[in-house]
C-alpha cells in the first residue's frame, strides 16, 4: 500500500472526514479511471503547465493534473474537503491549496453544505431551489451552512500567473465565478446541469464577451467530447437546451481563439 493510499484510508476512517468516504472510494483507487482521465486531459494540459482546479472537492482532478506533471492551484472552500486535500497532497510543492470559494469579488460569501453529499455543497441558492423541484434531486438536503473566504479568477491570476487550463465545478455557481474573470484564458471548462441550464447560458454569454469563441462538451463523467470539432456558443446553447433531463450534467470546454491547438489524447 503506497503512502497516498494509507492517507486516504485514514481519512475514510477519521470521524472528522468520514462524510467524504463515498467520494474517496469513488475517486481514488481505480487505475482504469485514472488512465482515462489522464488521456482525456492530456488534450489540454502538458508538463509544466499551470492549472486552476476551482471546486477541487477531494482532489481527483488534482491527481490527474499532477500525473500530467502540471502545477496545480486547488480552490476549495469546504473545510472538510480542504482538510482531505492537505493530507492527500502533503509535501507536494507543486500543489497549492486555496481554501476559499471563487466568486464575483474578493471577500466572504455563504456556502450551503450538504453534509451527506458534500460534492453538492453550493454557494447558489438558485441551485438548491432547482434541486428541490427536480426528479432525482429531491432527496438532497443542504442542512447546514458556513461563511467562507472568496477569491476571484482575476485575483488568482494576479497571484499565481496565467493558467493553461481552468476547471470550474461549483454546483450552479459557475456563472458567478466567471463574473470574476475579466480576461480571456487559453482553455477552461465549466460544469453544466440540466436542472440549472440558465447558468450555462449565462456562462456562454460571459465567455463570448471575454473573447472565447470555440466550444465543445463532454457529457457526464465519461471524458469524451461530443463534437468532432469546435462549435459556436449559440450551437452549444442549442445543444444543451435540447438535452433530456436524464443527461443530468457534464462539462463545457471553451477556447479563446479557434486556432488554439487541442493536443491529441
UniProtKB/TrEMBL annotation:
GO biological process: methylation
Gene3D superfamilies: Vaccinia Virus protein VP39 (3.40.50.150)
SUPFAM superfamilies: S-adenosyl-L-methionine-dependent methyltransferases
Keywords carried by this UniProt record: Methyltransferase, Transferase
Matches recorded under InterPro entries: FkbM_mtfrase, SAM-dependent_MTase, SAM-dependent_MTases_sf
Methyltransferase FkbM domain location: 53-185
Domain of life: Bacteria
GO molecular function: methyltransferase activity
Name used for this protein in its record: FkbM family methyltransferase
Amino acid at each position: 500500500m503506497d503512502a497516498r493510499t494509507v492517507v486516504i484510508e485514514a481519512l475514510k476512517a477519521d470521524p472528522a472526514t468520514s462524510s467524504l468516504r463515498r467520494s474517496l472510494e469513488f475517486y481514488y483507487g481505480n487505475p482504469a479511471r485514472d488512465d482515462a482521465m489522464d488521456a482525456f486531459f492530456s488534450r489540454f494540459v502538458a508538463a509544466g503547465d499551470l492549472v486552476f482546479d476551482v471546486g477541487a472537492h477531494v482532489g481527483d482532478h488534482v491527481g490527474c493534473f499532477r500525473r500530467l506533471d502540471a502545477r496545480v492551484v486547488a480552490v476549495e472552500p469546504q473545510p472538510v474537503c480542504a482538510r482531505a486535500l492537505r493530507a492527500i497532497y502533503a509535501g507536494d510543492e507543486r500543489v497549492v491549496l486555496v481554501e476559499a470559494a471563487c466568486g464575483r469579488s474578493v471577500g466572504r460569501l455563504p456556502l450551503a453544505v450538504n453534509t451527506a453529499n458534500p460534492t453538492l455543497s453550493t454557494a447558489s441558492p438558485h441551485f438548491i431551489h432547482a434541486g428541490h423541484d427536480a426528479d432525482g434531486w429531491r432527496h438532497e438536503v443542504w442542512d447546514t451552512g458556513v461563511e467562507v473566504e472568496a477569491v476571484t479568477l482575476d485575483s488568482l491570476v494576479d497571484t499565481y500567473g496565467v493558467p493553461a487550463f481552468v476547471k470550474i465545478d461549483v454546483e450552479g455557481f459557475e456563472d458567478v465565478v466567471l463574473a470574476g474573470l475579466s480576461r480571456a484564458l487559453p482553455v477552461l471548462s465549466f460544469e453544466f446541469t440540466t436542472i440549472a441550464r440558465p447558468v450555462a447560458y449565462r456562462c456562454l454569454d460571459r465567455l463570448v464577451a471575454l473573447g472565447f469563441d470555440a466550444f465543445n462538451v463532454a457529457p457526464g463523467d465519461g471524458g469524451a467530447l461530443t463534437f468532432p470539432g469546435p462549435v459556436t456558443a449559440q450551437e452549444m446553447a442549442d445543444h444543451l437546451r435540447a438535452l433530456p433531463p436524464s443527461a443530468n450534467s457534464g462539462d463545457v470546454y471553451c477556447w479563446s481563439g479557434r486556432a488554439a491547438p487541442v493536443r491529441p489524447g
